[in-house]
C-alpha cells in the first residue's frame, strides 16, 4: 500500500528543491503518494500539474512575530556566551522603532532578550510560540485538512518560516510524524530553526554536528544526513546546451572568454554594484592588452533594486546582463519563485564562464561542481558610509569557518590587485578548484547527485519504525 506523504511548502523557498527537481518523480517510483501541502501563492496544480492541497489561512498569533524575533536574539546571545564568541550577534539586523506598533514590538523583544538569553528563557519563548500558534485559525484549518487526508508523514521543506509552525503542531498533535529540511548552509549558526519537528534532514555530517550544537532539544537519532537537491542540476548533462547554442541564445561572442559576476541581495552587499564596476574596469584594462574578455552579470533573483542599472549601461561594451528565470507571485523575497528553465540557465552559465566573482555567496559551490574557481571580493568601497554594512563582515560568519583552507576560494583584498588576479585566473596560473571541491564535500556531502533518493530512503526507513 502506498504511503501518503505531504510535502509542506510554508513558503516558496522549498519549490526549487522539492517541486522543480526530480524529487517527486523519485518518490513516486518508490511507491509514495505525494501531495503538496501548499501555503504559497504559487499554484502547484496549475503550473506543474501536481496534486496539491492549499492552505488558505495565513494568520499567525499576534505575539508569534515578537517571540520568534526574541528567540533568534536570545539564542544568538546564548551562543556568544556558550562558545565564548562575539560573532553570533552579527547575524542580527537592527530593529525598527518607528511608529507605536513597531516600537512596542521591538521593546518587547529587547526586554525578552535582556532577561531571557539563557536555557530557561529560550525554552519559555519556544513554548509560548507553540501555545499561541495552537489557538490560531491556521492551526484549526491545518488540523481539519490532516484529519481528512490522513498523511503518513509531513515533510516541511524549510525550517525558518513562522507560517510553518501551526501546521506542524497540528500534525504532531494528531500523532503524524513530521520532518523538516535545513534549507541553507548558513541557517543553523544564524538561529533560524523555528520549526521543531520529529526528524531533521541535513546536507552533511558537518550540518548534523551543527544541529546537535545549536538545537540541544534534538537527539542524534532524529537526524538524517541526506545531501541537498540544490546542486543536482549541475550534474545533469541533459541540461547543457552546446556552447554554440548557449552563446547564440544570449548574443555572446564565441571569441570572448566570459566571467560570471553573481549579484547579491542588498542586505548582504549593499554596495554590490561597485564591485561589478571594478571587475568591468579590470576587464577593459586586460582587453586593451590583448585579451578578449567579457562579464555575464546574473543578478540575485530576489534583488528588486535598480542599483546596477547605471553600471550595466556604462559598461555595456563588456557586461552582458542575463536575468535569472524566476517568476514573482507576490511582493516579498520568498514569493519570487524559481523555474525549471532557470536550472538549465544557471548550469550553462557555470559551464561556459571562466570563473565566478561575488561577495560571500554559496555560488562557490555551484561553480565548484563545474571545476571552476570562485573569486571573493573582500575590500571596502570608498562609497562606504556610516550605517552602511561592510561586506567584510560576511567572511567572519561561522559558516565561513567550514572551509578547509583559505585556498578554497580566491580572494581580492585590495582593489589594486584585481586586474592581476583576474589575469592569473584566465592564464591558468591560479585556481581554487582543488580546495573548493573539498569545501563542497564538507558542506554538501560526498554524494551530491543522490540527495533526493536519500531523502526518500530516509522517510521510508523511519515509517518502518
From TrEMBL:
Family annotation (SUPFAM superfamilies): UDP-Glycosyltransferase/glycogen phosphorylase
Protein name: UDP-N-acetylglucosamine:LPS N-acetylglucosamine transferase
Species of origin: Flavobacterium nitrogenifigens
Amino acid at each position: 500500500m502506498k504511503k501518503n506523504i505531504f510535502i509542506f511548502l510554508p513558503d516558496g523557498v522549498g519549490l526549487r528543491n522539492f517541486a522543480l527537481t526530480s524529487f517527486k518523480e523519485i518518490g513516486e517510483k518508490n511507491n509514495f503518494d505525494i501531495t503538496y501541502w501548499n501555503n504559497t501563492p504559487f499554484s502547484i496544480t496549475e503550473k506543474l500539474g501536481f496534486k496539491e492541497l492549499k492552505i488558505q489561512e495565513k494568520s499567525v498569533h499576534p505575539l508569534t512575530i515578537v517571540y520568534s524575533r526574541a528567540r533568534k536574539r536570545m539564542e544568538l546571545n546564548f551562543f556568544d556566551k556558550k562558545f565564548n564568541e562575539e560573532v553570533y550577534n552579527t547575524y542580527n539586523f537592527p530593529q525598527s522603532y518607528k511608529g507605536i506598533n513597531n516600537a512596542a514590538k521591538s521593546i518587547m523583544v529587547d526586554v525578552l532578550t535582556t532577561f531571557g538569553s539563557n536555557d530557561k528563557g529560550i525554552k519559555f519563548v519556544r513554548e509560548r510560540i507553540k501555545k499561541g500558534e495552537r489557538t490560531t485559525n491556521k492551526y484549526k484549518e491545518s488540523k481539519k485538512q490532516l484529519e481528512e487526508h490522513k498523511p503518513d508523514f509531513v515533510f516541511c521543506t524549510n525550517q525558518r518560516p513562522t507560517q510553518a509552525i501551526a501546521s506542524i503542531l497540528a500534525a504532531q498533535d494528531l500523532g503524524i510524524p513530521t520532518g523538516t529540511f535545513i534549507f541553507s548552509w548558513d541557517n543553523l549558526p544564524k538561529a533560524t530553526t523555528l520549526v521543531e519537528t520529529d526528524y531533521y534532514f541535513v546536507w552533511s555530517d558537518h550540518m548534523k554536528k551543527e544541529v546537535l550544537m545549536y538545537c540541544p532539544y534534538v537527539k542524534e537519532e532524529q537526524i538524517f544526513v541526506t545531501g541537498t537537491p540544490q546542486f543536482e542540476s549541475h550534474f545533469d548533462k541533459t541540461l547543457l546546451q552546446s556552447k554554440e547554442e548557449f552563446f547564440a541564445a544570449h548574443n555572446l561572442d564565441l571569441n570572448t572568454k566570459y566571467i560570471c559576476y553573481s549579484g547579491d541581495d542588498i542586505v548582504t552587499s549593499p554596495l554590490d554594484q561597485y564591485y561589478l564596476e571594478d571587475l568591468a574596469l579590470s576587464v577593459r584594462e586586460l582587453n586593451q592588452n590583448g585579451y578578449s574578455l567579457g562579464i555575464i552579470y546574473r543578478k540575485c533573483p530576489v534583488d528588486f533594486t535598480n542599483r546596477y542599472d547605471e553600471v550595466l549601461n556604462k559598461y555595456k561594451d563588456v557586461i552582458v546582463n542575463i536575468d535569472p528565470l524566476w517568476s514573482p507571485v507576490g511582493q516579498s523575497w520568498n514569493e519570487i519563485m524559481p523555474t525549471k528553465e532557470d536550472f538549465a540557465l544557471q548550469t550553462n552559465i557555470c559551464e561556459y564562464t571562466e570563473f565566478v566573482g561575488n561577495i560571500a555567496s554559496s555560488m562557490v559551490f555551484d561553480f565548484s561542481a563545474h571545476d571552476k574557481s570562485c573569486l571573493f571580493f573582500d575590500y571596502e568601497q570608498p562609497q562606504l558610509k556610516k550605517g552602511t554594512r561592510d561586506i567584510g563582515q560576511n567572511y567572519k560568519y561561522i559558516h565561513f569557518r567550514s572551509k578547509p583552507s583559505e585556498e578554497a576560494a580566491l580572494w581580492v583584498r585590495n582593489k589594486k590587485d584585481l586586474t592581476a588576479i583576474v589575469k592569473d585566473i584566465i592564464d591558468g596560473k591560479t585556481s581554487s578548484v582543488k580546495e573548493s571541491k573539498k569545501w563542497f564535500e564538507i558542506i554538501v556531502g560526498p554524494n551530491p547527485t543522490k540527495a533526493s533518493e536519500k531523502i526518500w530512503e530516509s522517510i521510508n526507513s523511519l515509517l518502518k519504525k
